[in-house]
Structure formats: C-alpha cells, structure tokens
Amino acid sequence: MAYQFPQITSYEPVAANEAILIASGDLRLSANQKCWAAQAGMEATVIAAFAREGITVKRGHPYDPAEKHGFISNQRMGMDVFKSIDPNAKLIVAEAVWQYSHHVLAGLRSHRGPILTVANWSGEWPGLVGMLNLNGSLTKAGIKYSTLWSEDFTDEYFLNGIRQWLQTGEITHDASHVRDLNAAALPAAEAELGRKLAEQLQREKAIMGIFDEGCMGMYNAIIDDELLNPTGVYKERLSQSALVAGMRLVSDVEAQAIRAWLDARGVKFITGTNEETELTNAQIHEQCKMYIAAVRIAAEFGCDAIGIQYQQGLKDLVPASDLVEGLLNNPDRPPVYDAQTGKELYAGKALPHFNEVDEGAGLDALVTNRVWSAMGYDPSTTLHDLRWGDPYGDQYVWVFLISGAAPASHFIDGYAGAVSERQPSMYFRLGGGTLKGVSQPGEIVWSRVYTMNNALHVDIGRGTVIELPREETERRWNLTTPQWPIMHAVLHGVNREQMMGRHKANHLNVVYAPTAAEADKALAAKAAMFAAMGLHVHLCGSVQVG
C-alpha cells in the first residue's frame, strides 16, 4: 500500500549575520491600515540600527497591497508565516502599534532561535502597550525572549541592548528594584487582616463573571482554572450575547433614570447627531441599558466582579462598554434594581469590573476591594494601560490611560469633573461614550497579577499621582488618546527602564489611599492577602514594608 506523505514547507536557512523581522498587528483592518505608516517608519529605523552592527534584517512576510498594510493580521496567517521562517534564526518582533499576541504565539512557541521584542517609545502609537502584552504572553507560555524599546533607536541603552543580544542571545535589565516579600516583616495588624481575608475567600469562595475570554489576543490575561481556583476564586463563564439579550429587557424608563442620575451629578456628555463620528444620545441610552443588564446578570450569578470583553462580537452589536465599566468600579454609582423584586443590587458597593476581561486585573480588583473595604478606605479601583511616559521637571511622569473604565471618584471633582466623549471610530464603530477625567493628586498602590513558571505572581509598588498644568495634560492627551481618562503617575523607586524590563502585562491596577502612611498599610495588607492566597509576591521600588 502506498502512503501519501505530507510535504513539509521548506525554509531558507538564515546566516549568522542575518535576522528575520515580523510584525504582529490588529485583527481590525481599519486599525492595521491607519497604523501601517507608523509601523513602516519604525521598522526602517530598527533595520538601520541593526545594519550598523553588521546584521541584515529581512522581513518575514510581505506588505499586502490589497489590504494596504504589512501586519500579521490573524492566527492562521501567523502560522503560515512561521512555516517559512528558519526556526533557528535571530527573530525580531517589531511593534509600533497595538497587536494581538495570539497571531504569533504559535510560531514563537516552536521557534528555537533568540527572540527580541522591540517597541517604539510613543504615546500616539501604542507599540509599548502591544509589546508589553506580548511579553506577558510569552512569560506565561514559558517562551524565552529579550525585550527593548527606544524613542529613535539610536540611544546607547538600545544599542548596548542589541549588541548584547547579538553576542549572547539575551538582554539583561536592571531588576535591583524588585525583592520577594518577607511576610514575617509585615506589620502585625495588616498581616493578620490579609491572612483573615484570604482565609475567608478560600472558605466562602468568590466568582468572577467572564463575558467571553481572550479579548484582543491577550493570552496573558487568561488565568487557568488550576491556578485560579486554589485562591478561592472561580469563573462564571458568561456570553456577551446574554448581555445583549439582557439589554433588550431593560425598559427605556430605567435607562433614562441612569442618564438623569449622571446628568444631575454633573457628567458632561459631548454629543452630536452623526452616529458615525459623534457621540449621540441614542448611544448613551444603550450604554445605560448595558449598565443595568450587567449588574442584573452579575447578581443573578452571584458574581463578585465581572469583565466584559467588548471587542470581537459585541463591538458589532452595541456601543462601547467603557462608560458602564467606570460606573461599576465605583461604590457611588446609579442604583440598579432587581427586575422582579425591586431590591437594589449591590447597594452602596462597587461591582469591580476588569476591562477587556483581563483576569489578572480582575483577581487584583477583587482582592483590592476586600482589603480597602475592610480598612475603611474607598475601594474604587481600575486598571490602566501602561501607555507611555515623559519627564516633567525633575520627575519621570507616566501616562496611565484606559478606554474609559476609570471610576469618577479617581477624578478631580469626581462626576462633576467627568466628561464623556465618543470612542474613536477606528476601534469603536458603533460609538459610545467614555468616562474621561484627570486623576486627582494623591497616593496610590499599583500592582499586577501575572502567570510565570506555571504559578501566579504579583508585582506591587507605590506611587504618587501628581497634578500637571492643564496645557501639559492636554499635550499628553493629544499625544495619546484624548477621549480617555488619564493619570499622571510617579512611581516610587522604579525608573523607566526598570519598569519596562520587568513588567509582564499591558495593564496595571491602581487604587488610592488617603495618605502615604495609610497607603503603606494597605499595601502591606494586600501583599499579606496575596501571599496567603498562594501567590508569589514581589515588592517593587521603595516599598516601606515587607
């Protein structure tokens, strides 16, 4: 009997003085087309930098004249691209924009040569955010990689980094700001509180409601059940179609009551009549219905926190979820009542929401809510993109930015200081408003839960939110996404290179405390709770406890 043996795709071996460059892109054609010029310009500078070191960089996939971009735009394409790449080649993943990590993860898992992720240092083009997501995904997958970033790819930090990578296949970054938690060194009262809260969680259990997993290819944002469940937290897997169905059961009168509450609190909606380019009252009305539907579904399933994916699927049916998310993250929010009994749901409490179903952020938000509530502090929390940063005076000030999910209690003047603007049409075709504001000055605890070496870890540190002059805030907004809420953050004892070299995600969680001393105490209790839940806790920067 004759067998038909498969023909394995061949590849050209890559020489020692050559490297292959690939670019993971968005799943949305409009985003890939709009962002291609920035990507092409960034690639040219990266290729030139390697050429000066004697390395010829070749693209691993061509520009597509029909689609008008040169990104890997879906998982199948990524698999096909890697079929023809020498698995032993030096591989550069260059990112000037947001990218979907799962487009390239399959190929990177089987690649044997050294991998380097590279991003441009730009707020306008969020390559930093995309690269950090890819780094977190590679870390979770156990794939060895090196990482670099640069404003123009001519600075010594970047050049020294690529020289080290070319010589050794890896790059070392300064991690002297990180130390493992010494639980025995925590203050006694806060350590006991953290342990008791963890004991309660593991005994009584909690539920994270997941409205569809894996938003925007964020493999790093999925916590496997085998790691999550031992902490006492379980998933209720919900469908975003159920959210749409739930919205249809919300009456116009109920939705109008939510809008009236927001109007009375002083939220400024910047509205127009063009559905394609402006925020309309009809879009806001649908967002108010989504808010009610989300709370009712969460209550039906007994959820302690929820995450709405929004992007794929839901974005083609309803306006954006971000206004909804900002309201949920705040104990001070419009009341929602059970459709049958009339009882107020989650009365006087936040229903923590983790944007883009980032489950690492969701677990963090749940823990934060319990610790801060037990200590009598406002538990309003959010995740932010680690979007960009720039010096101001003698301080390095980060731009933390997210698509609208920040609670108004974080803003200067609260709801009265909040503005709702239409989400950019490139990403949000059906519009919907954000919850936008400037975060108030104050003391914060920042943190990130992530998966590494098949275990849950958390990095945690301190920071201060500062108030910048209005013109500087506007400059930063205009260099990023001006429709979104912004936080001007100064991290304690962590410089730019240390943060970028260490951070394992595109997101980080932030929460305020009343004073610096109380922030230190809250951090200690949070660290103790995480440790008692079985997470590996790492203190970052000048943390005064543990």
Commentary on this structure:
It is a single chain. With 546 residues, the protein is α/β, with parallel strands linked by helices. The protein folds into 2 domains: 18-168, 3-Layer(aba) Sandwich (Rossmann fold); 183-540, L-fucose Isomerase, Chain A, domain 2, CATH 3.40.275. Helices cover 35% and strands 20% of the residues. It contains 15 helices and 18 strands. It has helices at residues 29-52, 75-83, 102-110, 127-141, 156-168, 188-204, 225-228, 240-248, 252-265, 281-300, 322-328, 359-374, 470-478, 496-502, 516-532; strands spanning 18-22, 56-59, 90-95, 115-120, 146-150, 178-180, 206-211, 233-238, 268-269, 305-308, 381-392, 395-401, 419-420, 442-452, 455-465, 486-491, 507-513, 536-540. Strands 11-12-16-15-14-17 form a 6-stranded antiparallel barrel, surrounded by 4 helices. Helix 9 (252-265) packs across helix 10. The N and C termini lie far apart (70 Å).
Share of residues in strands: 15-25%
CATH class of the largest domain: Alpha Beta
CATH fold-type name of the largest domain: L-fucose Isomerase, Chain A, domain 2
- In CATH terms, what is the architecture of the largest domain? 3-Layer(aba) Sandwich
Share of helix among residues?
25-40%
* Estimated radius of gyration: 23 Å
Largest sheet, described in full? 6 strands, antiparallel, barrel
How many DSSP H or I helices? 15
Number of strands: 18
In CATH, the homologous superfamily of the largest domain goes by the name: L-fucose Isomerase, Chain A, domain 2
> Number of domains in the coordinates?
2
Structural class: alpha/beta
Principal-axis shape equals: globular
Mean pLDDT: 96
- Unreliable stretches (pLDDT < 50, length at least 5) are none
Strands in their spatial order, largest beta sheet? 11-12-16-15-14-17
| Amino- and carboxy-terminal Cα gap | 70 Å
